[in-house]
């Protein structure tokens, strides 16, 4: 992921660094458990390229980037990092970093070019991912596969609007998931159904800044569409989890979903702002987390604020959610930053999607939440990360895997700055220290940390602008050059996992 495609008024207010938190925090290289796994993460459209190679069909991102190129900085993922044709090189790169895990996504339209349950299967697409998995295992790297990372097949979007038709989408998605489990599940033992359903629901079906670009300006119903999309995603997840547990139990794998979310601090000590911070977490994370992990209805705050805009679960769907809630083996967390939440005057706008709050990086006293990175929405705030780990654990009682975390550096357009990426190295160090404190001081069972990302890539609506990679990519030659942060990660995980703790730090 890593592209926050929506900015807020409060983010444009910048005070002096002297009023900011987090600038002087030292990296302490605190310990991590010996079996703690570290890895890297990517997404198919962002790195693979080969947009039409070997029978791949178009996704909504192929259409979106070509139909109106200005929406993605006049750039696209046709070539991206050309990972499709450079798999061995990239696997060797990961091996040189000593990673334990590689989290990648499967392109649905590479396997089923038109997307539907009655459409032909592309065996060359199957062969690509099978070969990738084999190469990873040969190097001792665990494959973690994400079934869906935003690249809906254009074919099913054209037929019925994809997520806007719950029953049709569920049937096609179950068929696609079954294909993946049957072809790859003998070797892949950790699965993710959906990456960041919040982003698909809001940024793609309300704000219109991600494919397929649905928004009020385009004549779409932003009052209800995001919530209908979210409802479809939740039910599709549950159906696939149930199918996996019944039909593929012999594979002895784990399955869950990946949710993204900032942590939110109150804008002030007013009770209204304290309540707003909690409500924002419920609108962002609880929206999906409560039905998926608790097997219950949407958070009460969402029912209160959204009313009839929020779909209802039928009795049969409620039972499905209850039955599948504890099959989810882990909580997959994508996290990048922390923000302040400020309550807005009632009533909310009729297409409000925030819980009637304004979020930003500066509080009532002019204190920034943390140093700004190479993109203005992402601030360095490790203490917020620790608080979010506690919030998730207290609410859902599942082991946590950090499935994405990272940042771009200020000034990273300069190659020397990009390679000597001290800002990113410090960010990783601070966030790993936060994980250590959450484990040893707070009792949160964090099992792994996958950095975003293996290499600079196509960052959605920002094109090739922000560079989140621990490997620099020259997009004119596609040459890969490891950044200093990759060496830091290799060494810090060796050091942190070898420290004796006796359960304390």
Automatic annotation (TrEMBL):
Catalytic reaction list: Hydrolysis of terminal, non-reducing beta-D-glucosyl residues with release of beta-D-glucose
Segments crossing the lipid bilayer: none
Pfam families documented for this protein: Glyco_hydro_1
Keywords for this protein: Glycosidase, Hydrolase
UniProt cross-references to InterPro entries, sorted A to Z: GH, GH_1_N_CS, Glyco_hydro_1
Record-level Gene Ontology MF annotations: cellobiose glucosidase activity
GO biological process: cellulose catabolic process
Enzyme class: hydrolase
Family: Belongs to the glycosyl hydrolase 1 family.
Biological role: Plays an important role in cellulose degradation. Shows hydrolytic activity against several glycosidic compounds.
PANTHER family: GLYCOSYL HYDROLASE (PTHR10353), LP05116P (PTHR10353:SF36)
The protein's name in its UniProt record: beta-glucosidase
């Amino acid at each position: 992921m890593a592209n926050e495609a929506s900015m807020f008024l409060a983010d444009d207010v910048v005070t002096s660094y002297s009023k900011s938190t987090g600038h002087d925090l030292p990296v302490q290289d605190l310990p991590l458990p010996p079996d703690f796994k570290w890895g890297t993460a990517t997404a198919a459209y962002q790195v693979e390229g080969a947009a039409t190679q070997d029978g791949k069909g178009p996704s909504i991102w192929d259409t979106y980037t070509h139909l109106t190129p200005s929406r993605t900085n006049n750039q696209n993922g046709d070539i991206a990092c050309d990972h499709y044709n450079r798999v061995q090189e990239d696997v060797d790169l990961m091996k040189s970093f000593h990673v334990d895990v590689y989290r990648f996504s499967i392109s649905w339209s590479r396997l089923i070019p038109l997307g539907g349950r009655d459409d032909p299967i592309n065996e060359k697409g199957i062969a690509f991912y099978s070969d990738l998995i084999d190469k990873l295992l040969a190097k001792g790297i665990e494959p973690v596969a994400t079934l869906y990372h935003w690249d809906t097949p254009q074919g099913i979007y054209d037929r019925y609007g994809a997520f806007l038709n719950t029953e049709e989408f569920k049937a096609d998605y179950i068929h696609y998931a079954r294909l993946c489990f049957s072809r790859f599940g003998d070797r892949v033992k950790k699965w993710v159904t959906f990456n960041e359903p919040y982003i698909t629901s809001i940024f793609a079906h309300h704000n219109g800044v991600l494919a397929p670009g649905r928004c009020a300006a385009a004549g779409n119903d932003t009052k209800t569409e995001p919530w209908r999309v979210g409802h479809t995603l939740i039910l599709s997840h549950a159906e696939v989890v149930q199918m996996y547990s019944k039909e593929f139990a012999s594979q002895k794998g784990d399955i869950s979903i990946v949710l993204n979310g900032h942590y939110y601090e109150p804008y002030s000590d007013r009770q209204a702002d304290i309540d707003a911070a909690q409500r924002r977490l419920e609108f962002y994370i609880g929206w999906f987390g409560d039905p998926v992990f608790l097997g219950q209805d949407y958070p009460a705050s969402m029912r209160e604020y959204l009313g009839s805009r929020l779909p209802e679960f039928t009795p049969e769907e409620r039972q499905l959610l209850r039955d599948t809630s504890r099959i989810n083996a882990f909580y997959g967390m994508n996290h990048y930053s922390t923000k302040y939440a400020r309550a807005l005057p009632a009533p909310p706008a009729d297409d409000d999607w925030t819980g009637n709050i304004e979020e930003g990086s500066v509080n009532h006293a002019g204190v920034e939440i943390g140093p700004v990175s190479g993109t203005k929405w992402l601030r360095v705030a490790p203490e917020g990360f620790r608080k979010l780990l506690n919030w998730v654990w207290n609410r859902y009682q599942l082991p946590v895997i950090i499935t994405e975390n990272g940042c771009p550096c200020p000034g990273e357009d300069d190659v020397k700055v990009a390679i000597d990426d001290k800002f990113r190295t410090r960010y990783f160090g601070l966030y790993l220290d936060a994980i250590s404190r959450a484990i040893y001081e707070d009792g949160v069972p964090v099992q792994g940390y996958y950095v975003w990302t293996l290499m600079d890539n196509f960052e959605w609506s920002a094109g090739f602008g922000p560079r989140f990679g621990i490997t620099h990519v020259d997009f004119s030659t596609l040459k890969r050059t490891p950044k200093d942060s990759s060496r830091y990660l290799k060494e810090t995980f060796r050091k942190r996992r070898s420290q004796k703790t006796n359960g304390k730090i």
